[in-house]
């Protein structure tokens, strides 16, 4: 399945990002170097991981190891806590466990709470709840609490996270139809990734998977939660944001490289999404990077 890199921006010096996601729309397959934990607080969240569809139910947890590709399908009436953290935060000289060992912990561990011992599930939920509660705190000690709970969480996983057994896969959707649909979605995502700089019409993408434009529109909206045109626009926007963070280019080149038909369209879509123009966004990033280097 196609994928793109997500750049995680931390809100605090703890190298930890937490937020509640009530967005029931789908996301494009992506990966990042940070470990990510998903904790479902309401309903059922449909996840694509290692080319399988996982139904994560309320109170269930999944860990995405560093660098692994994952995506979310449309999950109406659901909510989840998201935790992203950088393993480099844990100083191996002080803690006695190397970063490589931590990476291996999640790479070889059983990442889905469906297969954890009951006690581990209870302890993990309690720590994740406490950790998320710190997002509402304005105390001077909030960073200390976050580091403390995060340290406890990693310590718990080092002690109790079971290893993945053999080739057994995470629970998949019982309906074969979902597997067939996933293959079609993969075709669509792959096509977007390789042709997003071109003019992709609804007729073109419908023909790719053998659907009429009408049926394709219904199929895509059902699984992704938004129209194909909006999804394509969001993907191009993500490409533009990545380009702006990596290169110093004229806006006309950024628009072209990210697949927008014109600078005017690019500027309009970007400002509507980010609240500022692409040029202002680029300057903001440059200033932030300069301040980081100074500090």
TrEMBL record:
It comes from the Bacteria. Residues 186-284 form the HTH araC/xylS-type domain. SMART domains: HTH_ARAC (SM00342). One of its GO terms (molecular function) is DNA-binding transcription factor activity. Gene3D superfamilies: Homeodomain-like, Jelly Rolls. Keywords: DNA-binding, Transcription, Transcription regulation. Signal peptide: none annotated. InterPro entries: AraC-bd (IPR003313), Homeodomain-like_sf (IPR009057), HTH_AraC (IPR018060), HTH_AraC-typ_CS (IPR018062), RmlC-like_jellyroll (IPR014710), RmlC_Cupin_sf (IPR011051). This is Transcriptional regulator. It comes from Pseudolactococcus plantarum. The lineage of its organism: Bacteria, Bacillati, Bacillota, Bacilli, Lactobacillales.
């Amino acid at each position: 399945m196609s994928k793109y890199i997500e750049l995680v921006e931390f809100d605090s010096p703890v190298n930890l990002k937490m937020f509640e996601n009530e967005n029931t729309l789908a996301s494009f397959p992506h990966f990042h170097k940070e470990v990510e934990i998903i904790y479902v607080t309401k309903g059922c969240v449909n996840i694509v991981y290692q080319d399988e569809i996982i139904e994560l139910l309320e109170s269930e947890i999944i860990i995405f190891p560093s660098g692994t590709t994952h995506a979310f399908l449309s999950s109406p009436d659901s909510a989840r806590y998201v935790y992203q953290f950088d393993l480099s935060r844990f100083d191996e000289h002080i803690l006695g466990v190397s970063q490589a060992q931590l990476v291996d912990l999640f790479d070889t561990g059983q990442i889905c709470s469906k297969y954890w011992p009951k006690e581990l599930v209870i302890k993990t939920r309690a720590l994740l709840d406490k950790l998320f509660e710190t997002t509402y705190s304005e105390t001077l000690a909030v960073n200390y609490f976050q580091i403390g709970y995060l340290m406890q969480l990693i310590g718990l996983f080092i002690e109790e996270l079971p290893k993945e057994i053999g080739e057994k896969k995470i629970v998949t959707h019982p309906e074969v139809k979902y597997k067939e649909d996933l293959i079609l979605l993969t075709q669509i995502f792959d096509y977007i990734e390789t042709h997003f700089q071109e003019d992709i019409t609804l007729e073109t993408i419908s023909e790719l998977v053998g659907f009429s434009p009408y049926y394709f529109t219904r199929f895509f909206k059902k699984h992704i939660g938004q129209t194909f045109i909006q999804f394509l626009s969001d993907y191009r926007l993500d490409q533009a944001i990545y380009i702006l963070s990596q290169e110093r280019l004229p806006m006309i080149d950024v628009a072209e490289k990210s697949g927008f038909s014109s600078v005017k369209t690019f500027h309009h879509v970007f400002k509507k999404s980010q609240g500022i123009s692409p040029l202002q966004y680029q300057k903001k990033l440059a200033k932030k990077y300069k301040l980081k280097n100074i500090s």
